[in-house]
Amino acid sequence: MPESPVAGVRLQTVEGIALTVLRGRGDDAAFIAGAARWLGQDLPDSYNEMSRRGDASICRLGPDEWLVIGVRPEGDPPSPVIAVDVSSARSVLRLDGPGAADLLATGCALDLDGGALSRGRFAQARLGAFAVLLLAPRDRDGAIDILVARSYARSLTAWLTPGSSP
Question: Which domains are present in the chain?
Answer without folding.
Answer: 10-15+89-159 (3.30.1360.120), 19-85 (3.30.70.1520)
